Every structure is written in C-alpha cells, then in structure tokens.
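Q: How do we represent a protein-ligand complex in a form that can be generated token by token?
A: Start from the inputs.
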Amino acid sequence: MTDPTYQVTAAELEEQQRYIQQIADLPERPATYCVVTYGCQMNAHDSETIAGMLREMGMKEAASREEADFVLFNTCCVRDNAERRALGNVTWLKEVRKRKPGLMIAVCGCMVQEPGMAEKILKQYRFVDLAFGTANLHRFPELMWKALHADTTVVEIDTRNTLAEDLPVQRMRKDAAYINIMFGCDNYCTYCIVPYVRGRERSRRPEDILRETERLRQDGVKEIMLLGQNVNSYGKGLADGITFAQLLRRLDETGIERIRFMTSHPKDLSDELIKVMGSSRHVLPQFHLPVQAGNDEVLRRMNRRYTREAYLNRVRALREAVPGIGLTTDLIVGFPGETEAQFQDTLSLVEEVGFDSAFTFIYSPRVGTAAAKMPDQVSAEVASDRIQRLIALQDECQQRAMRRFLGTEEQVLVEGFSRRSHSAVSGHGMHGLSVTLPGSERDIGQIVRVRVTGLKNNTLVAERAEA
Ligand code: SF4
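Then emit the structure tokens for the protein with iron/sulfur cluster bound:
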C-alpha cells in the first residue's frame, strides 16, 4: 500500500446510503445478523460500524450466530491462531447452512487484506458470499447489495489508504465510545503484519474528531477511547501540523468526562504529550506503552527503534508527570534468536517497571514479515517455558503494583453487574484497573467515587467513598 490518503467523498457516502435504503426495501433480505469480532479495539469499532449499517438496512441483531440469517466474521491476522480460529468458524458455518439454506456468510477485516487471501477465499471458501478488506468498510452496503444478487462470492479488496467520515455506528455501550483518530502504521516492526494490511498512517482531521466527540458528549457518552495503531504519531501529513498532544489538549477542553487512548509507540512518546498528560483534567492517568522486549539487541532486530534505557526513561518521565499513573504493556517472548540471557533482560525490565498489567504473547511468525525469514526461530517448548515464567513474574509484580491503590480514592465508570454477584457492580477506575463495588442497576453507566479496600486477583475491591 503506497497510495496517498484517499478521503471518501460525500457523494460516495450518499450512494452507499442509497444502497442501504434499497436493501431495507428488499422483501427477501436477511432479517437478523451476527457480527463476530476477532482482534483489537480497531476491529471492535469497525464491527460497531458494520452493525450500524446492518441496522439501517432493517436487520436486527440475532441472539446467537446459529440463529442469524447473515453472519459476518471481522477477522484479525496479527496472530496465526486468530486466523485459524476465524477460518475454522467460517467452515463450521458451511455445515450450518446445510440446515439453513438462506444463511449468508461474509468475511472482512485484516485477514482478508493479507496478500493472497482473496485468491484463497475464491478457491477454498467458495461458499462465502462476501469478502472485503479493511479499506472497503464504507462500501459495505454496495457490496452487500451485490452479494444479495450474485451466485458467486463477491470479493473486494481496496489497497487505497481510505478515510471515511460519518458512517452509521451501533455502539456496544451507551456510556463509552471508540473514536478512530488515525489508521495504518508506517513502523514496520519486523514481526508485525499490520502495515501490510492496514496501510500507511493517515490521520482524521481534528475538526472531524472534535465534532464526533461533541456529538457523543451530547448523546450522554462519558468516556471516549481514541484509537489508532500508533496514536502518538497522529497528525503526520495533516495540513495544520497538529500533534497528538495538541489534539488531546483540544479534546480535554470539550468537557467530555474521560479520555483514554491506545496504542502508543515508545519512540513517538514526546515530552509535549507527557506534559499534557500531567496537566489535563479529563485525560485519564493511564498509559498503554508496549515494550515488547527488555533487551537492546532483540529490540533492534524487532525494528522498534528505541533502547531499553530510552523506554525506562519514558516510564520515569510519565511517573514524574502523573504520579501513580497506571502503566500497561505488551510483551513478546521467543522472538527469533532470543537467547536465555536476552529473555532474562525482559524479566528484569518487567521487575523494574512493575506494570499494572501486561499482554504477553509467544512470537507468532507471519508470512510476509521480515522476522518470519530470520534464522534461529525459537522452539515451541522454549517459548512456552519462557512465557510461563514471564506470566508468573508479571502476576507477582502486578499484585505488588496494585497495592499502591489500597486506601486511595478512585472514580469508577460502572459497566455492569459483577460476574459473581447481583449486589455488586464493576467497571474501570481512572488508572485502568478493574474495580468491583457494592451497587445496583442504577449505577450502570455512572461514574462512582470509591475507596479501595482490598485486592482480588487482578481486581480492586472498593466501597463507596460516600459511605
Ligand atoms: S508499531 Fe509496530 S507493532 Fe505496532 S502496528 Fe505498527 S508495525 Fe505493528
């Protein structure tokens, strides 16, 4: 993908709106839908957009995928097992269709955008009705129309770096919303497929993001999560040269109650952003800062373009500007050539930082990436042993880190009932940790002030501050 950013025009969107209406008017269209999502928050938000369009086509969400007339798999290709799971489920639906001949099956997302995947679908998954890539989301109504009238699989994969505004969205939550601020990635970390399937970095105009935020605020949304593969490089290529820090500052002034964001690249975490974090009123004191490894040589081979010391320096600066900040990370073990000594450096970094939580992964080779061709691939046994040791250490460090919240106050956005009891509710505190507290249905969607009284696994246990 090397084309410049393509902003979808209002006329194109109007045309898609006409397709939505035509489908809604069809007497024999699917009545119910199910969207199955794999992968990251970007995919979850894309699924909300697709669900928004399906609703406008007159369809209702089915209680399960077995009951739906239209099932769409929004796939991920970052890890091999996510891809295998998605394809396994698509194949399983082929069997379901034997009992339910009208069932429509569609596949979209990163996996479809992978080189060679379109040909694979046309050859091995001919029973799929529709497949489209990440850059074709805004054209879903037209593609759906074609699929409703075609005898063979409709496939469309756009390689342009598109940006589309004002697509309908069916949000999963009333009180919180995702906002995409940028798409794609220019970093080419050697293990990562994302730049090949999500295209070059492109940012939405700040005025569009502010308009969307204001609309959400008026709609009662309390928390927004800004999304992008590398939000820290937001603004690259925009005419007014705005930075992510400046965008945050402007969003902070909108009065939306809580602002979160992900994901950040350590090399692009500027002093300006750290300063904004320290002085804003609504940006939450939490930061997801993927480190991936604690050894300089491994980081170099991953093409991460920072050193262990540079990463630790960013952590220190964040903690100085925002005392008590919630820090989370991503870690990969078993990267090609990783020695035991290099892995030990990852363990020592985890110990030194004391993350509030970490997503830990065994390296998964992806065809087309530089790392997949590197020599000295680490065996599954060694990688599995390392990840177990890493998880055990992280659990220990996490418990230690969480103790700093005991006796402190938190503001919790309550998301629902606690899994264990109907007289308790749970949500996330400002620092990003999960919190349970006594409560009822009335609290769901509200921000509640609590005092932390205990810890239970990875959750803070709290009581109402008023009490
Ligand atoms: S920064 Fe690296 S890991 Fe993150 S999406 Fe870009 S290439 Fe992938």
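Residues 380-402 form the longest helix (23 residues). The two ends are 57 Å apart (CA to CA).
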